[in-house]
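This section describes the prediction task in plain terms. A model, or a person checking by hand, is given the sequence of a single protein chain and must write out its three-dimensional structure as a string of tokens. No templates, partner chains or ligands are provided. The sample shown here is typical of the held-out split.
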Amino acid sequence: MVLQRHDHRGQAVVEFTLDDVRYLGSDEGRQALGQVAGHTLSRATLISDIASLRKVFGDRVAVLVETVTLRRRAVAKLPEAADWLFTDAALQQATAAAVAAHRARRLTDRTVHDATCSIGTELAALRDSARTVVGSDVDAVRLAMARHNLGPGIGLCRADALRPVTSDAVMVVDPARRDSSGRRFDPRAYVPPLDDLLAVLGRRDHVVKCAPGIDFTAVEAMGFDGEVEVTSMGGSVREACLWSRGLSGTGVRRRATLLDTGEQITDTEPDDCGVAPAGRWLVDPDGAVVRAGLVRHYGARHGLWQIDPDIAYLSGDQLPDGVRGFEVLEQVPMHERHLRQALSARRVGAVEILVRGVDVDPDVLRPRLRLRGPERTSVVITRLGAKAASRATAFICRPSR
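The expected answer:
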């Protein structure tokens, strides 16, 4: 019997068994997956596709369809995992290949133990960089999938991350941050709980993946005294990663890593970034820079300044290489009427709206502007000044790309 549950979206999720993993990895299973992959399995055809496939594969149809569907979803995140096995939850939490490869490079020539190896994403990256790699997990089904995905070359065992089975290896841990009801935002609700995990890891070298929005102050209160690295890729923040002091750069407590450009910024760099009115360009720093609290460091590196000490927007007369910026055409007080008139005078018919520090919903504001015309532009809305002197301001801009 195929077991199913429903996730936080109310959608049915297949629960794989060890027997399912054995079947999917067999010659019979591989041939069946090939047949199923020939079907569209789209929202419009799914019911009829399943009805047709059930005549051939009977009760196996659920795991076959789920596996093909998950493989299709995995392509963007894990491009080399076309023949892997997944569970829905494991795929959601799996680290994107480029992010895992970056972490693995920081662990080159080390002996590494991935203590929550799941289906093997981190291990696949680590085996190309680390001296020795072993993996463990409490979930027997995910371990069996990892064995299928990685082949026989990596040692795997079933073990609890809170009871490490290695002593000298660098511990890599990715606590579960999601359950059937959705995301867990409190790190003490991770599985295993972050506070318990940090207590067990103690002074040994370790790397712990966390949600991007984790409260850094709360982590420090748990006794963590190493480096927090925030990593972005594809224009979005992917994760925060805790590196124990023995693995971090000398004196580094915060690091922003921008995989799209290869740039890294740390809190050991100068932060002498001044505050002045907007110049020719506005720059919205990468989310990893903002999340890591390194806006001033980034500005100092690139010769930029802040337009307000409490707002992350930066400005400069030259745009840093490879960075999308907004060339300031006009600055107006943020009142709908003033903004509407200014955009109308410029014959703007389509607008991108960016907001920071102001309670404005771009999707609500856009239709109220009643835009007409052939021109496209960007509007950056933010708050300048402190307390009673603060004012909402709109910058009408031409994006660099």
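For orientation: The chain has a mean pLDDT of 93.
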